[in-house]
Amino acid sequence: MASKFQNRLVGTILLVSIGVIVLPDVLDGEKTHYKEEIASIPIKPELDSDIESFEVLEPEDDSASLPPSPVEVVVENEQDADESSVSVVVKDVPERNQYQESAWIIQLMALKNAENAENVVTDLKKRGYQAHTKLENGFTRVIIGPDVSKNKLERQIVELQKITGSKGRLLKFKPLNP
User: Fold this and answer.
1) Rounded CA gap, 159 and 127, in Å?
2) Strand order in the sheet with 169-172
3) Predicted confidence band at 178 (pLDDT cuts at 50, 70, 90)?
4) pTM (two decimals)
5) With DSSP H G I counted as helix, E B as strand and the rest as coil, what are the percentages for the chain, rounded to 5?
6) Distance separating alpha carbons of residues 52 and 117, to the nearest angstrom
7) Any bridge partners for residue 20, and if so which?
8) How distant, in Å, are the alpha carbons of 63, 73, 143, 153, 177 from that of 59?
């Protein structure tokens, strides 16, 4: 049989080895692992811009449904209104829009905030420009004109760029589709 000393020695070695192996894991708790967060740099950044590019559409041609010039029917005798007493008179009337190809506007900018666009228009009106706003597709466009002098508006583009920092575009003014 083993002596009491040997039993105590074996028991002590077992307890110490269990304490050395198991207790650190039990008392340590959850381990925190630090991960380095990596952010990728985009090749081409996406810009959120207040200025929108858009295409100006040509107005639809309604001249096919209209006669070439206005027609007036004159009845000479109202009581005898047969085919022989009716005469047709064709009058020459000037076109509805005689400035169709000669009027111009400057589209200065398109802003998402309508209040800012109104402030720009107010400032430009104080400086003597014929400025207006037009709400379209969620944007408020700042427009200068219309004017029949293309040269005058071309000079104003340079002046407006100095004032607002925005280069406007010269566009044809279509009264039917402004």
Assistant:
1) 11
2) 131-136, 139-147, 104-111, 169-172
3) very low
4) 0.43
5) 35, 20, 45
6) 14
7) none
8) 11, 31, 19, 23, 6
Exposure string over 55-83, b if 16+ CB within 10 A, otherwise e: eeeeeeeeeeeeeeeeeeeeeeeeeeeee
Surface-to-core class of residue 164, CB atoms within 10 Å of its CB (0-12 exposed, 13-18 middle, 19+ buried)? middle
CA distance 13 to 26: 20
Tell me the pLDDT tens digit for each residue of 84-124.
Answer: 555 555 555 444 545 455 688 999 998 999 999 999 999 99
- The Cα 97–Cα 133 span in angstroms is 23
- Across 19-163, the runs of DSSP E, i.e. the strands, are 71-75, 86-90, 104-111, 131-136, 139-147
Contact between residue 144 and residue 153 where contact means Cβ atoms under 8 Å apart: yes
Q: How many CB atoms lie within 10 A of CB 52?
A: 14
**74, amino acid identity:** V
Residue whose structure tokens are 């858009």: 54
Helix (H, G, I), strand (E, B) or coil at 123: helix
Residues in the chain, overall count: 178
